[in-house]
Automatic annotation (TrEMBL):
This is Growth hormone-regulated TBC protein 1. It comes from the Eukaryota. One of its GO terms (molecular function) is GTPase activator activity. Gene3D superfamilies: 1.10.10.2750, putative rabgap domain of human tbc1 domain family member 14 like domains, Ypt/Rab-GAP domain of gyp1p, domain 3. Residues 17-46 are annotated as: Disordered. Residues 108-298 form the Rab-GAP TBC domain. The keyword ATP-binding does not apply.
Length: 381
């Protein structure tokens, strides 16, 4: 499979045209915009080509010079990290939970070790070993026709700017994506399938290059790390949006007051951050670094990322004059050099928000959930 990945990406780099900033999956209500001819081409001797290492096409206005400068430093960091990770793992499948490993994860997991670390840290590897053959049995069982149809509708909307997911490409990953989503829909009847899950499964498949591992990582994310995010009521998602508001009230009060002043609901500006786990919001490498910590430390990492984005850009946000202006500025803060430099960004998320314990997050979640339940009950006839 790894050879196939390299072949597809290599072929695509010679022919693909760049799409748009980051990689944007299209909601059902949108249609693709006309892509103009590229205005900027990479130098002939450039280290970075039109398709990134994960199969995503680079945008037309991609700054190859700045990216090469940043990546040359980052790749040197990764080479050093790779040596340390290899010594730490010693070929072991299991990953301990301790201060040293936590520090290693925060400093970045090299690409070649990422699937193993995610599987071990999340408990997905343990579940796979406890239930051999379970994933394949789900695919062999009789399928729910409505579930199949719903998943199929989203296939062409999943990463249209990624060469690995195009139906015209050799060994297209859409089949693997469909299988993982279908199996998970039958595995977790309370969730089934909803939009957003396709992007998460897609990222997992890109990294693991393995359907069964991707399935068990989905189970870890949706079942244990982020419970109730994707159920019909989406109570987990609603709760965490309110938790972010409570954290901002203390840590970035000026922005919290701005939101109150313009009567902006948190769901308007951050729901996509949480439901897609920053896919389609932040650059690919930055998202993967966030996920390294998400699988190892748990969901509080999402709050650290959100708090850092908001706190770092509060001067820009505070210039907003009305509700649409607030929403537009929240989009702006997810672009630019600050988020492109994933290594520096990850250092910032553990510094700028200050202390944030899982115990405090759990307490806030309970308070916010109780409030939401009471408010929704009051609205019922």
């Amino acid at each position: 499979m790894d050879i196939m990945f390299r072949t597809i990406v290599s072929t695509a780099t010679r022919t693909a045209a760049a799409a748009k900033t980051h990689h944007k999956g299209l909601p059902a209500s949108e249609t693709p915009k006309t892509v103009q001819p590229p205005t900027k081409s990479p130098p002939r001797n450039h280290l970075f080509v039109r398709v990134d290492p994960y199969g995503f096409e680079r945008p037309q206005d991609f700054d190859y010079e700045s990216h090469e400068e940043m990546m040359s430093e980052y790749l040197a960091v990764l080479r050093r990290r790779s040596v340390k990770w290899s010594k730490l793992l010693h070929g072991n499948v299991k990953v301990e939970k301790n201060i040293k490993v936590k520090r290693y994860v925060r400093k970045g997991v090299p690409k070649e070790h990422r699937a193993q670390i995610w599987m071990a840290a999340s408990g997905a590897q343990e579940q796979l070993e406890k239930h051999p053959g379970y994933y394949h049995s789900l695919l062999k069982n009789k399928h729910n026709a409505k579930l199949e149809e719903t998943i199929r509708l989203d296939m062409h909307r999943t990463f249209p700017d990624n060469v690995l997911f195009r139906s015209s490409s050799e060994s297209c990953l859409q089949t693997a994506l469909y299988n993982v989503l279908l199996a998970y829909g039958h595995h977790n009847n309370d969730v089934g399938y909803c939009q957003g899950m396709n992007f998460i499964a897609g990222y997992l498949i890109i990294i693991t290059k393995d359907e069964e591992k991707s399935f068990w990582l989905m189970d870890a994310l949706l079942g244990r790390i982020l419970p109730d995010y994707y159920t019909a009521a989406m109570m987990g998602l609603k709760t965490d949006q309110e938790v972010l508001g409570e954290l901002l009230k203390v840590k970035v009060p000026a922005v919290w007051h701005l939101m109150q002043q313009h009567n902006v609901m948190w769901s308007l500006v951050v729901s996509r951050w949480f439901i897609c786990l920053f896919i389609d919001v932040l650059p690919v490498e930055t998202v993967l670094r966030i996920w390294d910590c998400l699988f190892y430390e748990g969901s509080k990492i999402l709050f650290r990322v959100a708090l850092t984005l908001i706190r770092h850009h509060q001067a820009l946000l505070l210039q907003a004059q009305n509700l649409p202006d607030v929403c537009e500025r929240f989009k702006q803060i997810t672009h630019g050099e600050f988020v492109e430099d994933c290594h520096t960004f990850m250092q910032k998320i553990f510094l700028e928000p200050g202390s944030l314990s899982m115990a405090s997050v759990r307490k806030l979640r309970q308070t916010c959930r109780d409030r939401i339940v009471a408010e929704e009950a009051a609205l019922r006839p």
